Backbone:
């Protein structure tokens, strides 16, 4: 009820204030989504049921053919929406309202990326209040649209994470080329391992920590700085606060043994992170972005329960979320555009009190895509990606066998009246193995083997329309 009241108040402010202040208002509608006329899930002969995170699962022993609507970036529904941008004539005050209608999610009206008020007390400072997404210094190297329809691989946040939360955002540009940003998050759209939003998880903690919200302030804040060195490139550094959380060993790892899971599903350690990235622009036409993420070491973490209102349970032990090193590149050549995004995770481990140590197997993700523009409105794309997982060790013994998962697709995209209206279709596939321990024979813990992933073939029709 409180969240609905907040939404009503914010909507009232956003709708009324532009008229009161004589603001300039622009309104735009959108309709986007994906229709999948054909998607085949083929089960290998010796596959164990687990299921990729695609919203639907085979219901036959040999596989299933699925059709329906969905949004590849969130496995939700198609959506219609409205974007309202208003600002005063002096450009010092404004609003940004994005509302979405997603019928297949039973969500009649939901905020989009932005639902905020902003104010510029000085031409070097902007203050945002509300729900916001800010990508000023996020990496420009992004995987193909809807790539996760068939392979769960990196995103545009792989190299350097953006600001995305509900709360307060400050952006400060004192001189040309120097940029600072800071956010205090009252709630975020990201969820932890137990599926609760950050705001819900902090409320769960209150029976234990009383009213001391400041105790977890370091998990609610985000600070970033960037400096552009002329034509050489841009250096970015940030502290990314997020929920410190650990998937329980027995209830998390054991439940995923014998299932089709990636390392991130078996070992889930979430910690605040320091991120560093450099975007090299010295070479003409070449975009090269290099980044690293250093998670903060955790000790004795409070695990949030799945039931809201229940007391959290403290996990005794030491936990290190894997370090991440990433590289993204793009280079145009005549009508071609060559792109690649690579990331490696390593050095992760967890050791509960009075238990042996888990060494999380390193992981390499790579995706490459090449586009060819036949005309200004029509382009073709070929992409290929892979996820390589090494073995995971427990008590100096091989317990989780690594895997090799790969997939790709061939697509065509036609732009109608510029880049704001387009339709995209093609065919994609994924297959391979994922980390696990196949249960065979009298001794399931001897000589583990990786688990086979589904053989997936997808033909999506993806569309985006912006009006006007």
Residues:
């Amino acid at each position: 009820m409180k969240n609905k009241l907040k939404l009503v108040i914010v909507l009232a402010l956003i709708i009324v204030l532009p008229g009161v202040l004589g603001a300039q208002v622009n309104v735009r509608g959108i309709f986007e989504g994906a229709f999948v006329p054909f998607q085949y899930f083929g089960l290998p002969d010796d596959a164990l049921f687990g299921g990729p995170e695609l919203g639907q699962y085979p219901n036959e022993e040999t596989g299933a053919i699925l059709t329906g609507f969905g949004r590849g970036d969130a496995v939700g529904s198609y959506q219609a929406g409205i974007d309202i941008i208003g600002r005063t004539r002096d450009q010092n005050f404004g609003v940004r309202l994005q509302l979405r209608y997603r019928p297949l999610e039973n969500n009649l009206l939901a905020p989009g990326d932005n639902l905020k008020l902003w104010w510029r007390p000085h031409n070097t400072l902007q203050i945002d209040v509300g729900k916001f997404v800010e990508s000023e210094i996020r990496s420009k190297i992004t995987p193909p649209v809807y790539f996760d329809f068939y392979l769960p691989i990196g995103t545009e946040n792989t190299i350097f994470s953006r600001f995305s939360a509900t709360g307060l955002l400050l952006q400060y540009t004192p001189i040309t080329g120097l940029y600072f940003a800071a956010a205090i998050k009252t709630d975020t759209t990201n969820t932890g391992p137990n599926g609760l939003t950050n705001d819900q998880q902090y409320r769960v903690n209150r029976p234990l920590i009383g009213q001391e919200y400041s105790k977890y302030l370091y998990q609610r804040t985000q600070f970033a700085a960037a400096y552009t060195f002329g034509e050489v490139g841009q250096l970015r550094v940030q502290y990314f606060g997020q929920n410190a959380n650990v998937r329980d060993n027995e209830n998390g790892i054991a439940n995923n043994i014998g299932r089709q899971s990636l390392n991130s599903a078996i070992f889930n350690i979430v910690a605040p992170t320091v991120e560093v990235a450099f975007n090299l622009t010295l070479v003409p036409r070449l975009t090269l972005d290099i980044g690293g993420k250093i998670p903060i070491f955790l000790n004795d973490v409070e695990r949030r329960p799945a039931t809201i209102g229940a007391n959290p349970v403290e996990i005794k032990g030491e936990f290190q979320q894997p370090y991440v090193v990433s590289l993204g590149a793009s280079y145009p050549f005549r009508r071609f555009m060559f792109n690649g995004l690579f990331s490696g995770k390593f050095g992760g481990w967890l050791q509960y009190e009075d238990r042996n140590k888990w060494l999380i197997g390193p992981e390499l993700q790579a995706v490459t895509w090449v586009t060819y523009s036949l005309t200004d409105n029509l382009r073709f794309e070929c992409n290929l990606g892979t996820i390589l997982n090494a073995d995971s060790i427990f008590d100096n013994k091989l317990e989780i066998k690594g895997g090799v998962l790969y997939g790709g697709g061939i697509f065509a995209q036609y732009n109608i009246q510029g880049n704001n209206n387009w339709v995209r279709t093609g065919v994609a596939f994924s297959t391979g193995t994922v980390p696990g321990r196949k249960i065979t024979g009298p001794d399931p813990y001897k000589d583990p083997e990786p688990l086979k992933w589904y053989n997936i073939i997808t033909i999506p029709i993806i569309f985006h329309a912006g009006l006007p």
Remarks:
- The chain has one domain: 42-467.
